[in-house]
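Hello Y.,

Per our agreement to keep a running log of every chain we model this quarter, I'm adding this entry. I've kept the format consistent with earlier entries: sequence first, then predicted structure.
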Amino acid sequence: MSQRFLVIIFILFTMFCCKSDPKGQKESENINQKSTSDPFYCKVDSLTLEYLSNKTYRIAKETCKTTIIDREFILNERALIGLRKGIHNVLEKEELNSPILIKEVKWESFDQEYITVWYKQKDNIWCPFHSYKYSKSTKF
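Predicted structure for the entry above:
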């Protein structure tokens, strides 16, 4: 009887020790994955001109919180030269002379180039109206 008891104890002990710990697995998964609440979170594979040109500022920032430039300016108070010169081609003349708040955001794409997107507010939502992808070596 004592051998049988020892075998049962051994089997139970082995089963208990080999049991996977779901809580432990969850903790190790959290260590290996960046949280979207991380201030440096960036899903770099999504940073394409097509993607950023069609997403609101909020969604774009949720995709990649790490930006190179993230600033605002009043449209008719800044000279539209260099990279911003392309804005002339997409806005109406009345808009160009109006004090419209513009948000300018620059990301580094997955292929090591820059993407700049300009947003203007529509119903309190920052919507893209122009974007441009260019090499890091481009001179404006």
